Amino acid sequence: MPRIPPLPEEAWTDELRAVVSATGPLHVFTTLARHPDLFRAWLGLGTKLLTEGLLDGRVREMAILRVAHHRRSEYEWFHHSALGLQEGLTEDEVAALRRDLDAHPWDEADRAVLAAADELHADGAVGDATWAALAARFDERELIELVLLVGFYQLTAFALNSLGVEVEDRS
What we know:
Layout: H1 14-23, H2 27-32, H3 36-51, H4 57-70, H5 74-86, H6 91-96, H7 108-123, H8 128-135, H9 140-163
Helix pairs in contact: 4-5, 4-7, 4-9, 7-8, 7-9
């Protein structure tokens, strides 16, 4: 049962209607839209990271799914598992994102992305060794984006979990 239910359709703003016309009536949008100013700001950064970012879609979805795993966000996991498969992750890789890093033969570049998500979750910062591995793969802007991506999806998971946002009807 959601703590804050999705906004009923008759209360949708034109902005929310535009979002829903592109995505469908996802509960993340129809719930957060109850605070229009924050919704607009959240949506701007989320859209930038998800659809206009510099990171490869596969890398982006690996990082998001690792956050969903750590934050036990069923909502993020459900939606981003499908996106991850569309972006080139295999079903085995998606499943492995819920396990210890050593439980799957990640290549060095993928391992660095996942280690960064793990370190940000555990310590609030990326350690020096992981940063060096990331810097061998990504430029400055991509490094900034990766850290902000992980932070954005942690924030979103906090909201989804705390507000009780439920996965849409799966049937």
